[in-house]
Each structure stands twice: as C-alpha cells, then as structure tokens.
Amino acid sequence: MAVIVGVVVVTSGDDDKGDTAASKPPSAPGGAAKPKAPSVGKSFTKVPKGCELIKASTIEKIAPGGNKCTPGLMDKKDLPTMITRMPRWEPNDYGGPYQSLTVSLTVSAGVKGQYDLKKKTALSDLSGLRKVEGSKPVSGLGEEAVVVSTIDAQGGSLAVSEVVVREGNAALAVDFTYSRESSDTTRKQAEDAAVAAARDVLASMS
C-alpha cells in the first residue's frame, strides 16, 4: 500500500476595571455607545510553495521518515484571484506502518464558501465509504476550526483525523491518515498531528 503523507490547535482582558466616565468613549446619538468595528481576519498575499508549508521538523515529529514531498498540480500556477496548494508527504521507507499527511489550501476572497465545503466534505460518509466517529471545534486555531475523525467502512482498518480551518482569506484542510492495524497511533495523537501541521501552514503565510 502506498504511503502518503500530506498535509491543518482566547483571553479575556480586564479592560472594564477602573473605567470612569471620563475614560469611556463618547456616546453616539440617542445615548447608545458607538459599537466597535468588527474584527477582520488576516488577508494573506504571500504563500510558500506547497512543500514549504510545513516545517521539516514538524513532519519528522508527527510522521517520522515522511520527508518525501510531492506538490499538487496547482502549487506553481497561482491564479489572479485564487492561490491553491495541495502537497503531500510520504516516507522514503515503505516498510513502516501506513500513515499519510495531506494539505488542501485555498486562498481567495470567497474563502468562506471553501471552508464550508471542506467542512461538509470532512463530515460526510462519502456515500458509505467511511464512518464519522467524532468531531469537535478546535480553539485557538484560525477564526474557526473543527477536527473530524473517521474510519473506513470496510473493516475500519484505516483512520483519518482531519482539521478544517478558516483564517481571513484562507481555508485549509489537513488530513492525517494511519493504519489501526500496523500503527500504534491513537486518535488523539492523529488529531494533534493534524492540528500541528495546520499551525505550520498558517504560520508560513503572510
């Protein structure tokens, strides 16, 4: 079996403390306080090549030996309105347990729709090909993120932990796949691996 490694985890201030009438902003007409401007996510314009999205040290930690990277077809063909990266990493030695890490990254103005699509796909049973074992939000990662764990429907020998993230004008999905028969990887470890990789992806862009 081919091994593919491709490849994505809030503080409250104490601002009200010691406030006085003089320190508060003037009220808007009608006595209502002027609302704060909504927070705006990052707007990425520079995205590394696909194989540079995740640090080599991260790959070696979460998928030892997985230092053979294959870029996606669109990794070097940026469009005026969209940047796409779909690299995968696979180990040079296929003698070890099956595992894979993949990334699907989209940077564009209409990224909310891309995030919703990636999330919907992650939560899908793919017409009965797999079973969703659990999903949960991931705090502190992007503006919104969720991790979904699935197993294949044909005996459950393969398991996947996928993190889907939206940050500003970027949406990404990171899959960590492993064999439950030949690997001692746990679901928690797989989830942590996908989250660590997703953090690297976001940190690599500017």
From TrEMBL:
Annotated protein name in UniProt: DUF3558 domain-containing protein
Taxonomic path: Bacteria, Bacillati, Actinomycetota, Actinomycetes, Kitasatosporales
Source organism: Streptomyces alboniger
Biased amino acid composition, Low complexity: 21-43
The organism's place on the tree of life at top rank: Bacteria
Region (Disordered) location: 12-44
